Amino acid sequence: MEEFINIGKRIPKMDAEEKVTGKAIYIHDLKVPGMLFGEILYSPHPMQKY
Amino acid sequence: MDKRTLSFILNGDPMEVEIEPHLTLLQLLRDRLELTGTKEGCGMGECGACTVLLDGKAINSCIFPALEAEGKNVVTIEGLTDVHGNLHPIQKAFIEKGAIQCGFCTPGMVLSAKALLEESPKPTEEEIRNGIAGNLCRCTGYIQIIQAVKAASGQ
User: Fold this and answer.
1) Residue A5: what pLDDT?
2) Are residues B128 and B140 in contact, defined by beta-carbon separation less than 8 angstroms?
3) Does B106 share its domain with B73?
4) The last residue of a domain, from among B50, B79, B108
5) Residue A35 needs a FRET pair 20 to 30 A away by CA distance; which of A29, B42, B126, B129 works?
């Protein structure tokens, strides 16, 4: 059988080390200068017609 | 509100911070100290993403008042690698066993595993399942995580 480079082998994920050390940056780990914050304002009136 | 002084040990370093008394340990770590390796999932002590070690025991930092850490030893995922940046054996095992997908639960999962292995160095599979029972993972199905903890314990 032909020798494959990747198929049939357990390849460590490229970002596994970042993730296992907590260095991976997720969306709410981000802080940028002048960043704005939003919050959802829910309607107090259920089932209203427009 | 009047600020209070909190002295504790964070990842081996003594630390003194002035904080509002209502801050949770998670808010202190993420927002004030910018250690974002500790994650906020549910914010209600259900999912375990915010797990840190307090005097070696796994706690949910999202429902833990920061001031309660006074005089205690806190370890976060940032403190698990050694001074040279080498991964902890649990971290290596997670990578080798494919126990990481999106990775959001991983810091908490690794710290729960550390608390477990300190208490029970050769845990049975049931003990491992119990040890990580407070940590939700929506990707891996837990099997690889259990295998990783088992491997980290040398079994």
Assistant:
1) 87
2) no
3) no
4) B79
5) B42
pLDDT at A48: 87
pLDDT digits (tens, 9 = 90+) for B94-134: 999 999 999 999 999 999 999 999 999 999 999 999 999 99
What is the CA angle B96-B76-B12, rounded to 5? 115
User: Is the residue at B99 inside a domain?
Assistant: yes
> Domain residues for B122?
89-152
Instruction: Identify which of B72, B143, B59, B144 has the alpha carbon closest to the alpha carbon of residue B108.
Output: B59
Q: B79, B107, B122: which is the final residue of a domain?
A: B79
Q: Residue B103: which of A10, A24, A31 has the nearest Cβ? A: A24
Q: Which among A13, A18, A21, A29 is the top mutation candidate for probing chain B, defined by the most B β-carbons within 10 Å of its own β-carbon?
A: A21
Determine, for residues B95 and A17 on separate chains, whether the beta-carbon distance falls below 8 Å. yes
A1 is in which domain, residue-wise?
Answer: 1-44
Token digits of residue A33: 């200068």
Q: What pTM does this model have?
A: 0.90
pLDDT tens per residue across span B43-86: 999 999 999 999 999 999 999 999 999 999 999 999 999 989 89
Q: Which of B37, B40, B94 is nearest residue A22 as measured by Cβ atoms?
A: B37
pLDDT at B10 over 70: yes
Among chain A residues, the shortest Cα distance to B80 is held by: A21
- Pick the residue from chain A with its C-alpha nearest to B49: A22
Q: Which two tokens stand for residue B7?
A: 């002295």
CATH number at residue B94: 1.10.150.120
- B49 occurs within a structural domain: yes
